[in-house]
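Consider a typical record:
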Amino acid sequence: MRTVYVDKDIPKMFAVRAIGAVWPKIVFSSLSPSRYADIPEPPLPGARWVRVKNVQCGICATDLSLLFADVNPFIAPAALPGTRRFYLGHEVVGHTTEIGPDVTRVGVGDRVTMDTRFQGATCLSQEIDPPCRHCHEGNFARCENASAGVWPRGIGGGWGDGFTAHETEVYRVPADLSDDQAMMIEPFSVGLRAVLRRTPAADQYALVLGSGMVGLNTLQCLRAVSPKCHITATARYPHQAAMARRLGADEVIVKEDGYSATARITGARLYRGRLRNRMLLGGFDVVFDCIGSARTLHDSLRWARAGGAVVMVGITLTPLKVDLTPVWHQEVDLTGIVAHGSETWGGASRRTYDLVVELMGQGKLTVDGLITHRFPLSEWRRAIWTARNKQSGAIRVVFDYGQE
């Protein structure tokens, strides 16, 4: 089984971070913790496990962060015991080829996408009963037993021929969805969870900071959930700006100064202090930060109005030095989301994946134009450079195993 993985090797991670700026291809060398390998396929580790053969998989920014060691070992999750090897690729669709004798959720030949497996172990995947309160609610990314280590983790990932998983870690795809739509269920669920965390009203102003895949998905979900709100998006490249407009952004900020643009669009007042310090009174009702750097979080908190909110959708996997005084001075709510889980929709609890499928069926979420490049796994290095280089016009780059 061919696969791409990253080992939790701190010295090698530091080497890649230190040398990568001058020698980017170190990530493909023996000095890197990442490997492209052909490993034996092990037997299923339990009666409720399944084996999946991949059809296609997207290249996500989270995968690239792990691959290029853009991860600081002093962030909070790194303090927890957990997986020593990360198999890359979670925006994946495939077919089950083998199931254990006690599997009831899927059958052989079913088309599935990865559900909770990339997030880590859960009470369900470890067969812990009773489950913790979060797993009981369906918010598996918050699992309080994630580091219990009761069951083995699966082998393989989306960047490869296939993977093994506990039956609760995959989601059966409806027959009426295309493979492209099925592959996009997971990334759309991130945007939908963010929007449902702080949904703007019809007369409110929302800002989507960043028009990469996460930002464009969040924008679509905003338009689907709150169709009459005013949406502004920021974009770095022309093709991103064009796609943001196509997907329903009322305004797209490309080169204009963000502080001036916020004042122009929302009617906020811009004040200038000493040493280029700037602050707004007024601003966006909700800011969805889909980048999550120190700079974007700093600006997001100042571009939100008093009593408004900033939702961290994207994240930089390193400690950040950020001015948090708007949280106190302007009572701006700062909240985060991770992955997907259980949402409140129409007064009822619904799975994020189920809601995404429903919105796709209604034509409110589209994948048209989002998949810009396809590569066979044998060209994985070229695929990665294409995904990293946004000047290539890339939005979502995909490994297509039908090209092999």
Notes: The chain is about 25% helix and 25% strand. The radius of gyration is 21 Å. The chain has a mean pLDDT of 94.
